Amino acid sequence: MQKSKILRKIWYKLSSKQRFAIRKWYYFPIDSYDLLTKKRHPMVPPRGAIYTGSAANAVNFLKQGLYQLDLLKELTPLNPQSSVLDIGSGIGRTAIALTTYLKDGGSYDGFDVVKSGVDWCNKKIKSSSAPFTFTYTPIFNDLYNNTGVQANTFVFPYPSHSFDIIFSFSVFTHMQIDEIENYLKEIHRVLNNEGVCLSTFFTYTDETEMHISQNQTFSFPVLKDQYRLMNTNVKSGNIAIHQNLLRQLIDRSGLHIIELIDGNWKSPNNTTVGEYQDIVIFKRK
Questions:
Q1: Distance between CA 240 and CA 230 in Å, rounded?
Q2: Does 3 or 15 have the greater pLDDT score?
Q3: What is the biggest distance separating any 2 CA atoms in the chain, rounded to whole angstroms?
Q4: Are 232 and 177 contacting, i.e. CB atoms less than 8 angstroms apart?
Q5: Cβ pair 187, 166 in contact under 8 A
Q6: N or C: which end of the chain has fewer CB within 10 A?
Q7: Residue 27: its H or E element
Q8: How many Å apart are CA 257 and CA 99, to the nearest integer?
């Protein structure tokens, strides 16, 4: 077993509070250096507070958000007047990029299960041209939040048909099947008739299943019914879904796939694919 697999196994045995504490302790020296040398950005959290994605410095954090904004502009009908919902808004990576893109008539809403991230975003992320609102939703997730309501019954705190664009980066990769299906149904409810959703997943087919189950660096060895887990102890750690099952879930939710774009996680040497996870674009039927 490679070092990365061993470390990930140990990491998943820790509680969510322990993981947060270790991140802050590990990055404290470099965060202190950034503060003293004035390399911080007013909207970007210190590395130790970043609990999703890579713990990047301010420059790279902003670049990652701009890259996600470019994906939305390229693959959805996003425009400066769009009403936008960010599922799993995290610590504001994409939201920051949208502060200079959305204009009068546009709006941003985001919700997340980690209160510290929501509090940071509401305090630090501002826009002079469009309203930005972040909402804490205490939903149980064994990777991030060990208390709260269940995601398989959670109702998005927004009226029906509220949004032109909905997106989620690295959210469905940390949810169970019944939770994913409920979120898809809620997306259908709050999405406008002509609205579009962009979400990322880990997906596989019959042809790629053996590879993703045995890959030495990033694999899903635990076989379930048309999906695979990375770890049985932390079921929300990472999940890969067979594309047939994903299509069924999306169809049952009243949605349909416009496009499915494979990421490079299955083939890291494929430099023609920019996004790591698979991108799925879908809308109401």
A1: 8
A2: 15
A3: 53
A4: no
A5: yes
A6: N
A7: helix 16-36
A8: 28
